[in-house]
């Protein structure tokens, strides 16, 4: 059976040669005809509540950009792959996007699980990737990446801001419980929150740590437990259908009145929950954005963006929409900065990456900057409480605090949990924040 | 705290057991009569839920109390239409084929229904909670429960159980169904139309699954994929009880529902494991199920 | 088995496509690796189908293979691909032996259900023991070296592809020989008339156990390859829908011979891949309809179709 082996050897040699040739990234010095942006988002499954609005936003933003001449004078086009198709299909589709469709940049992804898989793959394929929505801080802390950037904050400042708000507004609570989805985000967000809490209020007792299965349709047993245990505060970083179900089932049985619920990333559920969301719940917005952002709400461009989005989709934007905008702004900023540094010539991918390190860009809030050491975005955080307001059939945020990023984001090179343990107990007291009212 | 936990766990376990029973008993019935494992059973559950939610949202502005009959109407609609079409056009042509092929047809139906569901109702969570809101809360040992959860669901399950028993044992149609189950050939020989019996039984089984879904819909967000977990869970209950056993399914659903509720109080991580662990242990000891008849090996 | 010549040509064509296409379209390299790897698992299903038994829990061996690699990398350290290709299937085989000792006593629906129960127990352990298994997100699998050589990402995908292709050829040959051997015939006797087998003084249980263990080995091998190709092992690998997929592919391809497994896997994966890319989420619909059509009009699967076309003779 010699022949087949030789044939195999020949094929392998050909393969190796072809692979070597394919390995060099195209040094694109001429202006391309169009910039292809490949976006991973949830088009099916529970997280489509974020993914579908973000897709609509991407299409809107791309159209808008092209009306203004595109990025660096080049029109953009967007294509999407579905995170909801599951791990295998996602990875295959990402590869296809990069290797066959030859996109210029990818925005991936929403789920921390997807980012965990795609970031190393992007690094392998030498594709510039902006992690536009996934929150797990561990991704950029565990490994130093060249090709991956995060154009938003991550779970650590998000949870620290929520904790700070809680400590500033309800400093005397004694017991707390958590009900989080059982996957990376649910576990990590609790780890961050509880580690910081232990440092700042060591006497608080954690009476229950519940991690129902992701996508659980029924929380009645968890709610019964909490009704029996009667904690002062209940934290949940759930989202989507899970959060809707939890809030509604808890509301039906009076748990929301009994314990002070903190919805760590509840902003995205507010419009869907409508009147089922009571007033007075602490709600995090996962960043420096809110469709009635106190500092932006009178900005005409911002208002136009929100109105256009509402006209297109029927709802006001949520945080995934603003994160998508941030990804576009970051990419545009990096390309334009690289072009300037290049004397007006079209930059190569490597040059764009060099420009992205240390880049400062603006989404729809205060600015965001990309830290050169670990490519982590530094973004402020808004936290507020739910409140009924005239003119809206859902609750809005009131008594909003905006936390500046430097104090609440893990310094580069450190792991979040380790850094949190070194925080001084008067950390929250030292944070100087302004409070904004809804109407103000 | 201990006796409190027991009582609370019972209250939580009851409603869960009620829903699981409704779905599994339909599955069991279908297997008992048609000898088909219906993988699409969970999809019938999901369709029952979505249809009930759609109907509820339609009738709620007219009068909130109409949402209750809407649940029933939705389940009968789904059971008859979807179940009937499925049996007549997808299952009847393949009765002569091997059992694994019949099962795969139901698996294919599950995939198709799952896909269609997303196309029809979209991917955003739907919540239609009128029926629950209408009823007051009940306080058990200081813990609030909705009456829907601790009264309505278990009552419907019990009513279904007795209704099915009565139907199968004391009515003519029920006797015919039992005859076909016992011995298909002999029943056909005395003039019973086995094809009609299959159709009727399948519709009943499908309606029961849809009823489970319809009853579940006011309590939870309806999201894509809600049938997938329910399928394997109802298998677990039906197989553990013994496929074809009606009363057995009720007992097993209760056992599994209570076990799950208790575990959440004691060791929450094991919640998902419990039904399958019970299934595994029971089937190892009694492969025909707790109440099954002994005809394990076919030679 | 008529139409052997046609099957031979189909095999050659298949191997050629698998070997050459990815050189043109790089993303196909991993896709084809996945097809081949899943085909290996489906070979195991086909073995059991010869005995007339369907396992609704085969994904558990697939999962065991995948997590063997993941756990080894996580708790022991990096290792060579050759080690994983040996370790994964062997551990899956041991699982198969253990579980097989119980399940081979049962037939038909009871066999299927018991396998389902075992696989769901494994799945729930993988899903919920977060601190050991990282739960639903799974464990990342780093690219191992092969025979001491570390390959670049681009080269590795081809290395893995050709390695898998070679394994497929070896394994298919072995399975075909097994099915043609007396052991294989006795396996088929379990389906047609088990009593007769017992009358010959042969333990049906032992025959089935051998087949079961072999299929577990194949399941583990497939799991190792997929985990390394996708660089992740998740609890989904052991979920019931995955078992269903494998049975689906077996029937789709046709259970008459080994090639059916790969034909079925190729159709399944390419439809899923392209439909999810183009028709955004009608892939389940399409595959479901295809399966129904195949079962109703070509119950012997795609291979059966091919055979019928060639000779008009039943296969």
Q: Give the helix proportion of chain A (percent range).
A: 40-55%
Report how far apart the termini of chain A are: 83 Å
Number of domains of chain A: 2
The quaternary structure here is: heterotrimer
Distance between the termini of chain B: 54 Å
Count of alpha/pi helices of chain A: 17
What spatial form of chain B do the alpha-carbon principal axes imply? globular
Radius of gyration of CA atoms of chain A, rounded to a whole number: 23 Å
pLDDT averaged over residues of chain A: 88
Fraction of helical residues of chain B: over 70%
Main sheet of chain A: which strands, in order across?
Answer: 7-6-8-9-10-14-15-16
How many domains would you count in the coordinates of chain B?
1
The main β sheet of chain A shows up as: 8 strands, mixed
Structural class of chain A: alpha/beta
Descriptive keywords:
heterotrimer; A: 440 residues; Rossmann fold; 2 domains; 8-stranded mixed sheet; 5-stranded parallel sheet; 17 helices; globular; disordered N terminus; C: two-stranded antiparallel ribbon; 14 helices
How would you describe this structure to a colleague?
The complex is a heterotrimer of chains A (440), B (299) and C (315). By secondary structure, chain A is an alpha/beta fold. In chain A, 45% of the residues lie in helices and 16% in strands. Chain A has two domains: 29-153 and 299-378, Rossmann fold; 156-285 and 380-436, Response regulator (Rossmann fold, 3-Layer(aba) Sandwich). Chain A contains 17 helices and 16 strands. The longest helix of chain A has 23 residues, at 319-341. Chain A is globular and about 65 Å long. Mean pLDDT of chain A is 88; it is low at 1-28. The model of chain B has no long low-confidence stretch (mean pLDDT 87). Chain B has a two-stranded antiparallel ribbon. Chain C has one domain (4-311). Chain C has 14 helices and two strands. Chains in contact: A-B, A-C, B-C.
